[in-house]
Amino acid sequence: MILHRLFYRAACVLAVVVLVSGWKPAKDPTFTSIDFPGATFTNAAGINPRGDIVGGYTLAGVGHGYLLSGGSFTTIDFPGATSTEADGINSSGDIVGLYVSAGITHGYLLSGGEFTSIDFPGATFTTALGINPRGDIVGRYNTDGGVAHGYLLSGGEFTSIDFPGANSTQANKINPQGDIVGWYDNSTHGYLRSGGEFTSIDFPDAPASFVRGINPRGDIVGAYNIAGLNHGYVLSGDEFTSIDFPGATQTAARDINPRGDIVGDYRLAGIGHGFLLSQKERDEDRDEGENIE
Known about the structure:
- The structure is a single chain.
- This protein has a single domain (5-281), classed as Neuraminidase.
- Helix content is 2%, strand content 57%.
- It contains 1 helix and 27 strands.
- The strands form 6 sheets. A 5-stranded antiparallel β-sheet has the order 1-8-7-6-5, with no helix packed on it. A 5-stranded antiparallel β-sheet has the order 2-4-27-26-25, with no helix packed on it. A 5-stranded antiparallel β-sheet has the order 3-24-23-22-21, with no helix packed on it.
- The longest helix has 7 residues, at 283-289.
- The two termini are 26 Å apart.
């Protein structure tokens, strides 16, 4: 890992949160834009209970992963890779993501400063996208035919995850209880897998929606598409809340931590940026949330 630390200066703006019903943001929540210094593109893909954030950025045409913690960035590059991305982080600070080497995509785990490559047996493509406190990892792999499948890596054993009857499946995040969320049929639908049972998740009246993150309470985040534009959302219980970064043309929510802080991406003037939607005002939720994992 390249220990390249940069101080983070953020621009905060009032949130535009359209309540369909359900998840209620804290009083006067704010969006914080996340941009790696000098990068032409930044996303925010994962957040843990402490508020540490991971994602990816592009600089001089090359993709890198990053950790944003305590106001400073740390670049993450898998040794010898041509590009790297960080996608998930747990309460211990273990990070998962993907890297490309010799044109092949692999998953990885970064724990205690050591990288471990993750490849589903026999797969031509593997990513690692989420990790819970126990170290269980979820992601996606492709077979020779290019078909996408989700997987769970637990105790050194891989298990395939396929939504019943779907043409393709991806697993994105896993919470402490082992609940897994993702998408199927090429991001047309989202799903929750809990206790071995699948539930399809579709934002009301949207022709396409997907799920990216889940916290210990079971709050789910993702995005839906209407008229060719993506919008973020939170699903709490059976109630959806739509989320749009102010002024953005596209928004997607990608992860949520125990106290309800959300990270994701937005596009403005064709440029991709990460964001944090903070729930700092909820002190009671913060204290409770930090003890969940």
